[in-house]
């Protein structure tokens, strides 16, 4: 009887001594795996890389935060990988009670993209639960993901990626990448880096009603040309069947307003750069204004343009100085319509935590 008990004791002691529990975790993969461990209950390993992946039409061009030399983590899906192959990597044990925030960047571009699951492995229950997942082609961009969850006292986070279904003879366009994984105590605050081409959805942007205007003029996600001739884009800026957001002007009168607000964005001590493309074509083009907002009441204009801008999409960069980003904020677009040939559209919007061109 003594012998088996001492084995149990030694094992417990071993687990406790070799697996210290942390309160927070962060990894940019720029100089290593930061104590991430490749799991062995899978088919292949995650790899670290700088620049583009080995195959065209899949994977990122480079690190999301440092394109000239930063490294990210990804699954290389070239031969000998096949449909359904899985790669799993886990953090060390993280502890603490209450809400935690996991933040990371994901890139899932290619015709045979499978699934990325982020799981929580609880030490007490020995079970894995899915905290976040996405599957299929999400477009050629990095997206910041933020997940608030309850800590089950001691746990690990597992990144579990699977290669998707073959696309005809092609299986190798399924590279999934992640970067800048951080785990912090407390619920997540706003996005620190934002990127949306409106291909998958509206990325959390919302219509907001205008006080005193007794109907809601909407920003809608749309593909192809708009409903009215001689105004609006004929298609997405980059993809033939791509999507953008626009306000349909055909039943509007001069002075009608359409407002669109961003998700909550994280404060930045350096100010931010908002980059986007807009389209304002039509004889009765009105005004497009961008505001930065704190809460619902304080609003500050940061950019404005007016009138017909021709049939092309126009690029625009807008600085928002640090005096307006010292707390979490939102961005509001307001289209002030002139009449029935004044469609206004926006697309390919990104927000960076530094002023434009610096
Ligand atoms: C990226 O990760 C590094 C180190 O892990 C951290 O200092 C930095 O703030 C992160 N940047 C963003 C935008 O999350
Ligand atoms: C995956 O990584 C682990 C840990 O570095 C290593 O022991 C193992 O041999 C690797 N597997 C493959 C297939 O490269
Ligand atoms: C980007 O990465 C390279 C290579 O590691 C490094 O030399 C450079 O300082 C990094 N740049 C920034 C802005 O972090
Ligand atoms: C705005 O409202 C319209 C009408 O309800 C809806 O179709 C559209 O998707 C909304 N736009 C956004 C960005 O949520
Ligand atoms: C802003 O307005 C929305 C909708 O009217 C409301 O749900 C939200 O709580 C308000 N936020 C603040 C900070 O007042
Ligand atoms: C943004 O601010 C930076 C630093 O002051 C400046 O160099 C840059 O030209 C500005 N860009 C725009 C689009 O205003
Ligand atoms: Ca990196
Ligand atoms: Ca688009």
UniProtKB/TrEMBL annotation:
Q: Which InterPro entries match?
A: ConA-like_dom_sf, MAM_dom, MAM_domain-containing
Q: State any GO CC term.
A: membrane
Write down the Pfam families for this protein, in alphabetical order.
MAM (PF00629)
SMART domains for this protein = MAM
Can you name this protein?
MAM and LDL-receptor class a domain-containing protein 1
Signal sequence interval, chain numbering: 1-18
PANTHER family assigned to the protein according to its UniProt record, in alphabetical order: APICAL ENDOSOMAL GLYCOPROTEIN PRECURSOR, MAM DOMAIN-CONTAINING PROTEIN
Organism domain of life: Eukaryota
Task: Specify the MAM domain's residue ranges.
Answer: 25-190, 194-358
Which key words are in the record? Signal
Membrane-crossing ranges are: none
């Amino acid at each position: 009887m003594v012998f088996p008990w001492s084995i149990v004791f030694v094992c417990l002691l071993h687990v406790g001594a070799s697996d210290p529990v942390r309160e927070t975790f962060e990894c940019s993969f720029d100089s290593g795996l930061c104590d991430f461990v490749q799991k062995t209950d899978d088919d292949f390993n995650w790899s670290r890389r700088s620049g583009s992946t080995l195959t065209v039409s899949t994977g990122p061009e480079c690190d999301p935060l440092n394109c000239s030399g930063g490294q990210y983590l990804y699954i290389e899906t070239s031969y000998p990988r096949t449909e359904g192959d899985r790669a799993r990597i886990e953090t060390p044990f993280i502890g603490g009670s209450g809400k935690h925030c996991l933040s990371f960047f994901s890139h899932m571009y290619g015709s045979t993209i499978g699934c990325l699951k982020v799981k929580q492995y609880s030490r007490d229950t020995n079970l894995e639960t899915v905290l976040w997942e996405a599957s299929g082609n999400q477009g050629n961009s990095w997206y910041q993901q933020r997940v608030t969850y309850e800590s089950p006292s001691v746990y690990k986070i597992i990144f579990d990626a699977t290669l998707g279904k073959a696309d005809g003879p092609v299986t190798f366009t399924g590279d999934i990448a992640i970067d800048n994984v951080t785990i912090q105590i407390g619920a997540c605050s706003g996005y620190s880096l934002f990127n949306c081409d409106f291909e998958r959805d509206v990325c959390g942007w919302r219509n907001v009603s205008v006080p005193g205007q007794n109907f809601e003029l909407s920003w809608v996600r749309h593909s192809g040309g708009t409903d009215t001739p001689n105004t609006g884009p004929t298609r997405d800026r980059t993809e033939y069947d791509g999507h953008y957001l626009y306000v349909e002007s055909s039943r509007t009168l001069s002075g009608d307003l359409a407002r669109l607000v961003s998700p909550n964005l994280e404060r930045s001590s350096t100010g931010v750069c908002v980059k986007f493309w807009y389209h304002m074509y039509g004889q009765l083009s009105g005004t497009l204004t961008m505001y930065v907002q704190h809460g619902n009441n304080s609003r500050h204009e940061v950019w404005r343009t007016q009138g017909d801008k021709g049939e092309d999409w126009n690029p625009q960069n807008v600085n928002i100085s640090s005096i307006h980003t010292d707390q979490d904020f939102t961005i509001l677009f307001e289209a002030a319509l002139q009449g029935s040939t004044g469609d206004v559209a926006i697309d390919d919007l990104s927000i960076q935590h530094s002023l434009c061109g610096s």
